[in-house]
Amino acid sequence: MGGLFAILILPLASALVPVLFLRRVPRKQRKMAWQLMVPLVAGMALGFFGMASGDATALADRGVLADAVVVSADYSGTNHCDLRTIDGLDISPSLSESDGCRDTTSKGDELRVRYDPEGVASPDDGHTSSDGVFLATLFGAAVVMGTWGGVRQSRWDRAYDGA
To answer: How far apart are alpha carbons 54 and 134 in whole angstroms?
Structure first.
């Protein structure tokens, strides 16, 4: 749901509202503050990286380190490796390329992974880092540029209204 929000709702709201907002300005004279595009891109990035950060937080809270065996590996598009613990328990969901399923990983390889026993968060190889500073920077850029673009848009509105 967060990805859908980041891909559809934020871009439409950020781009279309300033352009299509009903006011007494001829269409050819309507302007859009370019600063409003930065919150659009930052919002999309926040959605994508925020989901990954949520997985990392879940693994930090309730993750279990275990030795696992690669049961199968899919290299079509993005790599995904299906894993099973040494004890025979399936690890769900599969390990993605960014979390440790490399091109050199093949069926039967043993990996040390951190996984969520409840199967909510995606497993990782334990070497992923937190994106906290990156997410805070994106959020700050969205707030600053959105405020600046909104102020510019408001000034244009007052100029067109004759105030």
So the answer is: 14
Number of residues in the chain: 163
Residue 53, both tokens: 């950060």
* Sequence-ordered list of residues with C-beta below 8 angstroms from that of 29, at least 6 positions apart, any chain: 160
Describe the strand order of the beta sheet including 80-85 as a list of residue ranges: 90-96, 80-85, 64-74, 110-115
Closest CA to 66 of 119, 126, 100, 114: 114
Q: Give exposure, 76-94, as e/b (b: 16+ Cβ within 10 Å).
A: eeebbbbbeeeeeeebebb
State how far the Cα of 55 lies from the Cα of 3, in Å rounded to an integer. 14
> Cβ-count burial of 71 within 10 angstroms (0-12 exposed, 13-18 middle, 19+ buried)?
middle
pLDDT in tens, 16-41: 655 555 555 555 555 565 666 777 77
Model-level pTM? 0.53
